[in-house]
Amino acid sequence: MGTTLTNQNSIQKEINSRLKSGNACYHLVQNLLSFSVLSKNVKIKIYRTIILPVVLHECETWSFTMSEELRVFETRVLMRIFGLKRDKVTKEWRKLHNELNDLYSSPNTVWVIKSRRMRWVGYIARMGKRKSVYRVLVGKPEGKGPLGRPRHKWEDNIKMDLQEVGSGGRDWIELAQDRVGWQALVNVVMNLQVP
Fold first, then answer.
1. Residue from 125, 127, 121 nearest 160 by CA
2. What is the CB neighbour count within 10 angstroms for residue 114?
């Protein structure tokens, strides 16, 4: 379950690899997820303990560009867990698209990734300048970049996450030095609602 690195620093291959592994786990347990004897709570626990950890392995390092693929994956698994719903008026069976967020009380996968990334970067920021992982995190690459629009940096994700919780514009390294305050920000990110 190693991480796939490319010379272009593209995370798309890594996320595709994680989704492929998650799909393999999903197919191994899909009969359990559609088994009517098991409660929905047990099925959700199966999803959280077997499938989700495979998909989110080392997600802290992802520069997030493929949130839609993750949402599609999560929706497909949740639709298998919650099944169809019978409409009270028309008496027809239909898929649960809009109701899934209400039925599944856990945070969206995208927010889980963002909160894990923030927790990890807080830990790294508190390590200090002596550690090589800190220097890699805050270092600036030398040389010229490719022509065109600048590539999205991993650090930009942290700044966007902080903007979403109302702490944008502040230095994230300074914010992370306060362990309790940073953990509060991580918890806020985890509990954000999906638009």
1. 121
2. 27
Distance CA 33, CA 52 (A): 14
Residue 85 in contact with residue 94, Cβ under 8 Å? yes
The residue extents of the domains of the chain are 12-104, 112-140+151-190
pLDDT tens sequence across 90-123: 666 556 655 555 556 666 777 788 888 888 888 8
Nearest to 159 by CA among 111, 118, 187: 118
37-62 pLDDT per residue, tens:
888 888 888 888 888 898 888 888 77
| 168-193: b (≥16 Cβ within 10 Å) or e | eeeebbebbeeeeebeebbebbbebe
Site of tokens 């997820």: 33
First and final C-alpha spacing in the chain: 32
What is the residue whose two structure tokens read 């590539």? Answer: 151
Burial class (CB in 10 A: 0-12, 13-18, 19+), 32: middle
Residue 58 CA to its chain's centroid (Å): 10
Tokens of residue 87, six digits: 């409409």
